[in-house]
Write a sequence for this structure.
């Protein structure tokens, strides 16, 4: 079975890494082709694995009618040339254009909603337009895979698609064997791996840490448009000696294995892959309770959840873990066990492959077979 994967951006991010993990672990008898609007990280990852990569001119995250039309027409030509059995679209823009192109070419399609465009911190007119576009794309396509129950609920509340066409498949990641020793370091090492953008709310984290006591350091890995602004804020708050900016890191598993506590202060999320990576390493997680985060982090068992934007609660939870090496170690061990039980790559691939087979067998998605086979 041949699958054409289409994703909007090709730079490094959770969706792109998740896509690479999926195509690298497909079972025998499956062939993958990956298409994106950008050269870069995703293309390099495909080339290293021997997976064909195709660039789609005009496929960009921003709404741009002329470029969007060019990308749509190119996707139609690409589908006709590659002749896949299924088109699997990822992320919002590619999700809409690729599903419409698949409909034009009468090719079964599947869409993975990592987050919803109408749920993001975007201008109101963009979010207002996103709902009817998602409904249109859902109407002409097949199963929608959501990465969390929270994302499924958002789609159902807005009537994006009927429930039998929405399947929750948690992200799965490969194991590495690299384990942290939470509570064993001096200074206590906190780490956050995320792009510097409004969604990730580094500003909230730095303000929370301003009043955190003890011997600790914070490692911030990633790039993004707000990097310089965040560096300036760290200086303004007098945290220069406490906060280290590491830039983009290709060795995230090694970095997590050297830490004591993982933190993510996002304003919104789908099912953030980096939390799974932290749990895989056996780190306690302090994260804002947004999107599907609570489906990974069991408050008080594998880490702590805090309300988004709640500086005081975020500070308190971090302080508790800094003060107690024993608690950090206990929560980290629980996080590792949860990863082993629910978030292995093999489970994710098996459920996704079942969706492909159902899409080919039932292109119009007229029954609930895929949902019944893959739920949970």
């Amino acid at each position: 079975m041949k699958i054409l994967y289409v994703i909007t951006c090709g730079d490094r991010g959770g969706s792109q890494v998740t896509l690479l993990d999926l195509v690298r672990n497909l079972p025998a008898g499956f062939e993958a082709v990956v298409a994106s609007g950008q050269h870069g990280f995703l293309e390099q990852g495909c080339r290293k694995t021997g997976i064909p990569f195709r660039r789609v001119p005009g496929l960009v995250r921003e709404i741009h009618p002329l470029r969007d039309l060019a990308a749509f027409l190119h996707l139609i030509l690409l589908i006709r040339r590659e002749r896949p059995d299924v088109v699997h679209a990822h992320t919002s823009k590619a999700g809409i254009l690729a599903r419409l192109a698949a409909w034009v070419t009468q090719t079964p399609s599947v869409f993975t909603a990592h987050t919803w465009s109408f749920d993001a911190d975007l201008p109101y007119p963009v979010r207002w337009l996103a709902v009817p576009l998602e409904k249109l794309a859902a109407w002409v396509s097949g199963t929608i895979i959501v990465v969390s129950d929270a994302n499924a609920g958002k789609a159902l509340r807005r009537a994006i698609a009927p429930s039998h066409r929405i399947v929750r498949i948690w992200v799965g990641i490969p194991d590495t064997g690299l384990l942290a020793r939470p509570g064993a370091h001096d200074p206590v090492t906190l780490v956050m791996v995320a792009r510097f953008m409004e969604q990730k709310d580094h500003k909230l984290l730095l303000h929370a840490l301003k009043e955190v006591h003890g011997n600790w350091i914070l490692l911030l890995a990633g790039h993004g448009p707000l990097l310089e602004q965040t560096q300036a804020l760290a200086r303004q708050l007098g945290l220069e000696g406490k906060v280290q900016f590491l830039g983009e890191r290709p060795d995230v598993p090694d970095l997590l294995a050297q830490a004591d506590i993982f933190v993510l202060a996002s304003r919104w999320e789908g099912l953030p892959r980096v939390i799974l990576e932290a749990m895989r390493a056996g780190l306690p997680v302090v994260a804002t309770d947004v999107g599907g985060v609570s489906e990974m982090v069991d408050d008080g068992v594998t880490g702590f959840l805090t309300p988004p934007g709640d500086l005081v609660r975020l500070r308190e939870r971090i302080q508790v873990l800094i003060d107690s090496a024993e608690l950090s170690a206990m929560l980290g061990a629980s996080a590792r066990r949860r990863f082993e039980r629910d978030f292995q790559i093999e489970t994710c691939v098996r459920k996704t492959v079942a969706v492909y087979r159902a899409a080919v067998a039932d292109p119009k998605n007229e029954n609930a077979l895929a949902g019944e086979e893959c739920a949970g």
Notes: The chain has two domains: 2-172+344-374, 188-342. The CA atoms of residues 172 and 346 lie 7 Å apart.
